[in-house]
Amino acid sequence: MVSIGLLGCGNIGRVIATNEVGVRIRALFDRIPQKAQDLSPLCGAPAFSDFLSFISQDFDLVVEAASVEAVQEYAESILLHGKNLVILSAGGLADPEFRAHLEQTAQTQKKKIYIPSGAIAGLDNLKVGQIVGMETLLLRTTKSPSSLHMKTEVRRLIFQGKAHDCIREFPRNINVAVALSLAAGRDADVEIWVDPAVDRNIHEVYAKGSFGEITITVSNVPSPENPATSYLAALSILTLLKNMETPLVIGT
Fold first, then answer.
1. Could you confirm whether 81 is annotated as catalytic?
2. Per-residue pLDDT, 165
3. pTM of the full structure
4. C or N terminus of the chain, fewer CB within 10 Å?
5. Cβ neighbours of residue 3 under 8 Å, at least 6 residues apart?
6. What local confidence, expressed as pLDDT, does residue 195 receive?
7. What are the C-alpha distances in Å from 117 to residues 42, 121, 170, 210, 242?
8. Catalytic residue among 81, 101, 164, 203
9. Which CATH architecture has domain 2-115+233-243?
10. With a cut of 70, which residues of the chain have pLDDT below it?
C-alpha cells in the first residue's frame, strides 16, 4: 500500500483524504495549520505545523494539492528527502529552468514526479506530440465572471497568447495550459474567455499533426465544497493514486 503525505489541506486535499483508494495518509501539512488540524480527524493522519517535521515522516509519496507557490517552494526539498511527488499545480513547472532543475534532482535521487490529468482529459494522447510534433495545440478556456472576479454582461476574450505568458496575467489559471504543454512537448496557444452565460469552467483543446486531429471538450462540475475548484481535478489525483501499483497500465 502506498503511503502519502498530503501537502495542501483545502478542498482538493479534503476530497483526497476522505476517499478510500487503497493508500494510507501518514502526514498532513498546510501553510494554514488550522486546515491540516481540521482534516486530521477525518483521515487519522497527524497534522504538522512546519514543513521539515512533515517531510521527515515515514511515507513514500507527497501529494501536492496546494498552489503554484507551494510547488516552487517545496518540490526540491521533497525530492531531496527521498520522496516521490505528485504535482497537481502544474503551473509551478512553467519556468523551464526550474523544471529542468527538478527533473535533474529527481533523476539524481532516483525519484519520480507525477502530473495527473487535473481538470482536463487526453494528456496521454497528446504525448504523441513528443514523437512527431504538432502543427497546432490550442487551449480555449471559458469561465464565469465570478470565477475570475470580474464583471461583464457579454462574452469576451480576455487573454490570447502562449502558455508561458499566461502565468504573468492569470497565475491561477495556468495549470491546464502548462500540463498540456508538458504533455505535447511544445508551448500551447491559450485563449481565456469570460462568459456570463456559463456556470462551469469549460476547457476546449484542439491539436493537429501528422497523426490527425484531436478535439477535446471538458465542462467541469465545480467541487462540492468550493465552486472555484474542479471536482475532476481532485478525482484525477485519486485515480492516479488508485492505479499506481496495479500491474495493468492503461494508456501511455
1. no
2. 86
3. 0.92
4. N
5. 23, 24, 25, 26, 58, 59, 60, 61
6. 97
7. 26, 6, 20, 24, 14
8. 203
9. 3-Layer(aba) Sandwich (3.40)
10. 222-228, 252
